[in-house]
Design a protein that fits this description.
The complex is a heterodimer of chains A (about 260) and B (about 300). Chain A is mostly helical and about 260 residues long. Chain A contains eleven helices and no strands. Chain A has two domains: about 170 residues, Orthogonal Bundle (MetI-like fold), CATH 1.10.3720.10; about 25 residues. Chain A is about 75% helix and about 0% strand. Chain A is globular. The mean pLDDT of chain A is about 90. Chain B has about 300 residues and is mainly α. Chain B has one domain: MetI-like fold, CATH 1.10.3720.10. Chain B is about 75% helix and about 0% strand. A two-stranded antiparallel sheet of chain B has the order 1-2. In chain B, helix 4 packs antiparallel against helix 11. Classes of the chains: A mainly alpha (about 260), B mainly alpha (about 300). Chains A and B meet through helix 1, helix 3, helix 4, helix 5 and helix 6 of A and helix 1, helix 2, helix 4, helix 5 and helix 6 of B.
Chain lengths: ~260, ~300
């Protein structure tokens, strides 16, 4: 008994972490399990195992249109936000200029503003300029709230670079553009990639701001929300699970590539 | 010659770094943020003082600088106001309590599995948060396994439910914001040099004192960042309350949403949004000052 207690004391934090991860993964496991439910229309109770939903993920009406819209919005918003955010991050991380603290504030504010406020204010402005909300307004809204996250991520990477690497390149007669292209940019690239991944996942998963600014256009989170009232089709679980495994694969592949580079 | 060229390029770099280049880099992004973040909020400020056009259609308002909109909006919704901040506060405390040991275990006890565990913390982000919230609703719901089991074991009465309650809303938010709390905690814990902890031990500090006097203070930046990243979205959230709550657990976000879309009462929605934003900004700045962290971004 005493031994058991000692083991428990020594491993308390591990037991705790295990419980924490279980908590994190219960709903994901549930979503995955119910993607195999032979559910018909309402996916509320378990009615038997089937592969049918995975064989026909677009089987439920509108689910793939919504998914397609989410992916398009996500890709375009990621492109813009990564570009604009990376430029700001370089200015903040590599240059001194007047107005730095107001720039920092302008980057911080969107992250400190509740989504419902951002969504409502942007929609109010679109409406007062008689712009109908739809695809473009959603892309604009997503780009807007992703920029700050890109800046923070890329800036952290730039700050962690050893400035001596760039000095060394210059000492070896690389001009400033070459130094940037062949030393700085490759070193910052993992940060930019991480920022783009973050921007895409923020955009893809956003509901509140999208709900305000997308008009009648469906996105995947909107589809889930709208159909939740009468039961979500199991195809939504299939798509949710697919996204989960794809993203997991990308992240793990990124880590393996990163490790190989470190060893090389 | 080449040496001269290199020297010249150094000078040029020095010049550029203080010259126009940073402004050129900043301009596109900042103009974008100004147009689609600052202007809408300024526009919202004017909307919040509008009144309905007399005899006009629903949803048509005119600018009358009617500031008492704020007082009406507040008195009509003070319950939801209080509830938003109470729930956000509870969520933040719970998330901190759950995430701290988790982050600690990953930073200090995970050995070679560190990277895998980190991926697992972020992994929930990869399934739609709505799907996860709805999964909770079904797990804890009437037909779900938890309620059935608890009822069979007579732990809860046959009429007690777990969903459609404040408990469910706060648990849902705690769940959803947990990774936002765990990641910054992990990154500040991970930066702690283990030798400082050993040093504390060498100076006869017991585990608890080491934690209280060394580990926790050193992890403060992570605590501040994590609590902010949890509290801010939690205070403005309405999805958890809409899915897991009942009419008595409505938060300010739910009111703003329904004023906008169902009642078409833009001025009240705008006034509420504005008050929510200011309340959060004031709390955040007081908190940051007390926590003594300046570098936010």
């Amino acid at each position: 008994m005493k031994k058991l207690w000692r083991w428990f004391g020594n491993n308390l934090i591990r037991v705790y972490a295990f419980l924490g991860f279980t908590y994190l993964f219960i709903p994901i496991a549930y979503t995955f399990a119910f993607s195999f439910n032979d559910a018909g229309k309402s996916n509320l109770t378990w009615r038997g195992f089937t592969f049918a939903n995975w064989q026909n993920p677009c089987g439920a009406p509108d689910v793939c249109t919504a998914l397609g819209n989410s992916i398009q919005v996500g890709l375009i918003a990621t492109l813009f936000a990564t570009l604009l955010g990376t430029l700001i991050a370089f200015a903040l991380g590599r240059h001194s200029f007047k107005g730095r603290s107001s720039t920092n504030l302008l980057i911080f504010l969107p992250m400190a503003t509740p989504e419902v406020v951002m969504g409502a204010s942007l929609l109010a402005m679109f409406l007062s300029f008689k712009i109908n909300p739809g695809f473009m307004t959603t892309v604009i809204a997503h780009t807007m709230f992703c920029i700050s996250f890109v800046v923070v991520t890329v800036k952290a990477r730039i700050a962690s670079l050893d400035p001596r690497l760039e000095q060394a390149a210059m000492d070896l007669y690389a001009n400033e553009f070459e130094t940037f292209r062949r030393v700085t940019l490759p070193l910052v690239m993992p940060g930019i990639a991480a920022a783009a991944l973050l921007a895409f996942s923020l955009s893809f998963d956003d509901f509140i701001i999208t709900n305000f600014n997308s008009g009648t256009m469906m996105t995947f989170p909107k589809f889930v929300y709208v159909s939740s009232a009468r039961g979500i089709p199991p195809q939504a679980n299939v798509i949710g699970s697919m996204m989960f495994f794809i993203a997991l694969a990308i992240v793990i592949a990124g880590q393996i590539v990163g490790r190989k580079k470190k060893h090389a | 010659m080449a040496f001269l060229h290199a020297a010249a390029s150094h000078v040029k770099v020095g010049g550029l770094k203080k010259g126009r280049l940073p402004y050129l880099l900043l301009a596109p992004g900042l103009i974008f943020l100004f147009t689609f973040f600052i202007l809408p909020i300024a526009n919202l400020a004017t909307t919040s003082t509008q009144t309905p056009v007399k005899g006009g259609d629903t949803g048509s308002y005119e600018q009358t600088w009617h500031f008492s909109n704020y007082i009406t909006a507040f008195t009509e919704n003070k319950e939801q106001f209080g509830r938003s901040f109470l729930y956000a506060f509870l969520t933040t405390i719970l998330a901190l309590a759950i995430a701290y040991p988790l982050a600690y275990a990953i930073a200090f006890k995970s050995g070679k599995y560190k990277n895998i565990l980190l991926v697992l913390v972020v992994a929930p982000f990869f399934t739609s948060f709505l799907l996860r919230t709805i999964a909770w609703k079904q797990i804890l719901g009437e037909e779900g396994p938890v309620v059935q089991t608890l009822r069979t074991l007579h732990i809860i009465s046959p009429t007690t439910t777990l969903t459609a309650s404040a408990f469910a809303v706060v648990s849902g938010m705690t769940y959803n914001f947990l990774p936002f709390m765990t990641l910054p905690l992990y990154s500040s814990l991970e930066r702690i040099d283990p030798r400082t902890l050993e040093a504390a031990g060498d100076l006869y500090s017991n585990a608890f004192t080491t934690f209280r006097k060394v580990t926790f203070p050193l992890s403060m930046p992570g605590v501040v960042a994590g609590t902010l990243l949890t509290f801010i979205p939690a205070a403005g959230d309405y999805v958890n309350a809409a899915i897991l709550g009942n009419p008595q657990t409505k938060m300010l976000g739910n009111v703003i949403d329904s004023k906008f879309f169902r009642v078409v009462d833009y001025p009240t929605a705008a006034a509420l949004s504005f008050m929510l934003m200011f309340a959060i900004l004031i709390m955040v700045s007081v908190y940051i000052r007390r926590a003594g962290t300046d570098e936010l971004v």
